[in-house]
Amino acid sequence: MDLQANYQRFRERGAEVLALAVQDVARAKRMQELTGAEFPILADPDHTVATQYGVFDRLGDGVAAPAVFVIDRDGHIIWSHVGRDAFDRPTVDEIIAHLPEAQ
After folding, report:
1. Which domains does the chain have, with CATH numbers?
2. Which of 41, 67, 90, 103 could make a disulfide contact with 19, Cβ separation 3.0–4.6 Å?
3. Which residues have C-beta within 8 Å of that of residue 34, sequence separation ≥ 6?
């Protein structure tokens, strides 16, 4: 998992990584265990958050499209990437390039 392999790079920039799983808490926890993710994987079983961000069922498959949102300390989305298919994801370098400077 690229995010996990580069997690320290995000932390060095003062950023936190959060993943959202359109699953119940038990499945989100299992995903975290299986991937070895040190960052939180949050459960969104009713897809409320994914819907609010406009990524739920975007591809007509009943799940959230792969997406990355960079949110500043004030809660504003300053950059985003929403995948056009399950494999359309930005690279770690692309994400890091859009992070605000560490404070």
Report:
1. 2-97 (3.40.30.10)
2. 41
3. none
Q: Enter the pTM of the model.
A: 0.87
Task: State the greatest distance between any 2 C-alpha atoms of the chain, in Å, as a whole number.
Answer: 40
Residue 55's pLDDT is 96
Q: What would the pLDDT profile of 59-100 be if each residue is shown by its tens digit?
A: 889 989 999 999 999 999 999 999 999 899 999 999 999 998
| Residue 50 structure tokens | 């994914």
Amino acid at 5: A
Q: Is 102 helix (H, G, I), strand (E, B) or coil?
A: coil
* Cβ atoms 13, 96 nearer than 8 A: yes
